Amino acid sequence: MASMFNVGIAELKTSRDPGDTLMALGLGSCVAVSVYDSAARVGGVLHFMLPCAKEHESRGSPLKFADTAVPMLLEELERLGGARGNMVARLAGGASMFPNPGGGAGSAGSSGDVGRRNVAADHASLAQCGVRVAGEETGGHRGRTLKLEIGTGRTFVRSIGEPEKEI
User: Fold this and answer.
1) Partner residues linked to 24 by β-bridges
2) DSSP class of residue 50?
3) CATH code 3.30.1330.200 for 3-166
4) CA pair distance 18, 20, nearest whole angstrom
5) Which of 3, 5, 1 lies closest to 24 in space, CA to CA?
6) Beta-carbon contacts of residue 140 (< 8 Å; ≥ 6 apart)
7) Residues with catalytic annotation?
8) 138-159: pLDDT as tens digits
9) Model-level pTM?
10) What are the pLDDT digits (tens) for 111-147?
11) SS3 letters across 104-140
């Protein structure tokens, strides 16, 4: 039986059930990363909101941050039988959602560039862990939804006002 699971902010979900779909809704500056191992047929989705835990005194959940959450996702997939050498990642989100007075949306050093920094931190964390990024739909000024089908390993993104597409 097919099951759909929502992955909220500062959450990750993994599965090896071919009927499962993992979905991160409402991605603005947040980033969702899907990781899939086609040999083990396991996958997971992480939905994080900030690039680096060290930049924030009240750290809260390590799943809020790319640098701490990405390794946690990969470890969960390894527990399900995945191997980092077989894992492939796809990203969505990282938009500049709000204009920044005096600097335009997403200007460097502003709160508006959180999306861009999230994408860069995700790339860095995945590279450090030895996982290749095979596709992404990031940046811009539109919200998105990411969906991973565990049975096929296919990742889809829908941007507001646009049709769903595979990445």
Assistant:
1) 146
2) B
3) yes
4) 6
5) 5
6) 95, 96, 159
7) 30
8) 999 999 999 999 999 999 999 9
9) 0.90
10) 559 999 999 999 999 999 999 999 999 999 999 999 9
11) CCCCCCCHHHHHHHHHHHHHHHHHHCCCEEEEEEECC
Among residues 141, 134, 98, 95, the alpha carbon closest in space to that of 118 is found at 95
Per DSSP bridges, beta strands 31-37 and 87-93 are antiparallel
Domain range summary for the chain, segments of one domain joined by + = 3-166
Tokens of 108: 């460097």
Supply 1's token pair.
């039986």
- What is the identity of the amino acid at 19? G
In sequence order, the 6+-apart residues with CB closer than 8 A to the CB of 43 are 14, 15, 16, 22, 34, 35, 36, 37, 77, 148, 150, 153
